[in-house]
Amino acid sequence: MGTPTYVMTLPLKVETWQEHILEKRLNIGRNIYNACLGEAWRRYKYMIRNPRYWESVRMPKGKERNQLLNQLKEQYGVRKFDLNMYVQEMGHKFKRNIGSQMAQNIAERAFQAMEKVMYGNGKKVHFCSVGQFFSLEEKTNKTGFRYIPENKRMEWLGVILPVMMKDQDEYAHLALQDKIKYCRLLKKQIRGKNRYFVQFVLEGFPPRKRNQNYSKDENARVGLDIGTSTLAVTSENEVKLLELAEGLAVEERKKRILQRKLDRQRRANNPNKYNDDGTINRSNREKWIQSENYRKTRKELAEMSRKVADKRKQAHNQLANHILSLGLDVRVETMNFKGLQAKAKKTEVSEKTGRFKRKKRFGKSLANRAPSMLLSIIDNKLNYFGLSLKRIDTAKVKASQFEHFTQTYVKKKLSKRWNHFEQGDVQRDLYSAFLIMNTKDNLCEIDVERANKTWNHFFDKHQQEIERIKQLNKKQLSSIGL
C-alpha cells in the first residue's frame, strides 16, 4: 500500500512564446498517447482471436486461469511493461520536448484505458482528438517537469515557468514543505483563454486550514441517506435534509439552453447526416460541417460546463466539511449509482394514456448533482484521520423498510414520503438516516436499543428541520412530500 498522498494546484506565469511551446508538447503527448493506445488495441484484438483466450476466460477463477491469461498477455505483448518498451523509441525521438519518464507515463495512461476494456469496464477505447489533451506528468520531481524550491519556479527542458504563489498563502507554503512525489502540468480553458497550472502531488496529509472545524470525536456518529439529488443527515447534534449542489439550477438551465442551441445548429449545418425521423444517418460518411457560430456556441457550452463543475465541487467540499464537523463515524448505505443511471430495460405502457412509458431514470439528476462525488470527497477527508466511510449492507439493513418500534419490515412505495408514528409523522429520508446512524458495528443490522435511546432527541430536531424547510422562500425539495 502506497504512502498517503494529496494534491495542491497553483497557477503558472506563462509568456506567449512559452504557451506555444507548451501547446506543442501537449500535442506531442497526445500523439504518443494515441499511438500507444492504438498499438495496445491492435495487440489485444490479436490476442482475443486466439481460441485459447476464450478457453481461459470460461475457466473457473483461480491460479490456473490467471497463469494461462498471463501467458497469453506476455505472448501478445498486452502488458504495461511491453507498452513501456514500445514507447522508448518515441521518447528518444521527442527527447527535446518530452522526457523518457514522461513518455512512459503517457504509455501507462494508455494501458489503463486499455485495461478498462479488457476487464469489462468499457466497450471500446477512445482516442484523444486535437486540442483535447490537457495534462502531462512526470514520475518523480528529479527530472523533466520539476519544481525548484529556491526560485519558486518550474523547469522543463529549457522552459522556466514561475509559480504564482502569494506570500500570505499559508496553506501553500506549509504544503510545499512536504515531499513532492511528482508534478503535473494542467491546462484549462477559462473564459475562452488557455490557463496553465501545476499540480503538486505531495506525500503525507494536507495542512489543516484555519476555517476547518472537524470533529475530534471518532465515535460521534453521522448517518447519511443519500439520494439522486438530496441528502438526509442525522447526527447527535443536527438533523438536516439538504439539496445536493444547491444553487446550480440557474447554471444548469443555461447549460440546457446552450445544448439545444448546439443541436439545432448541428442539424442545420448537416441536414444530410440525419434521417427523416431525426436520428443520425450512420450510412452517411461525409465530414461533419461546423460553422463559426457552432464553434462559438460550443465554446460557450464548454465554459458553462466548467463553471457548473467548479461550483458543484466547491459545494460538495463545503458540505463534506460540515458533515465531518458533526462526527467522524460517518455511515451511509451502499448505492449502485451506475445502475440508477442506466435506462430501464422493461418496456411498459401507461394504463391512462396508452403510450409507452419513458425508460429514462436518474441519469440527468446524477450527472448534475454527483452524489457519488460527495461520498468520495468525504471518504478522502476521513482517510487523513486514518478512518474511512462506513458503508452499511443495504440488503440486510433495509433502512427504508424497517420500523424500530415494532422491529418489522414494511415495504413502501417510493411515492410514500412519510412514516406514521404515535408521536407524529417523520420524513422518510430523515428516518432512514436516523436508522443508518444507529446501526451496529457489523453494519448489517439496526441497534434497536440505541435507536430507542436517541429517538426523542431525533424527533425534536426533525420537527425543527421540517419547520425550517416550510419557511424556505424557494421551491420545496421534491422528496419532502410537502
From TrEMBL:
Chain spans, region Disordered: 261-282
Polar residues bias (residue ranges): 268-282
InterPro entries xrefs: Transposase
Any Pfam family hit: OrfB_IS605
Domain of life: Bacteria
Residue span, Probable transposase IS891/IS1136/IS1341 domain: 212-341
The name this protein goes by in its record: Transposase
Organism phylogeny: Bacteria, Bacillati, Bacillota, Bacilli, Bacillales
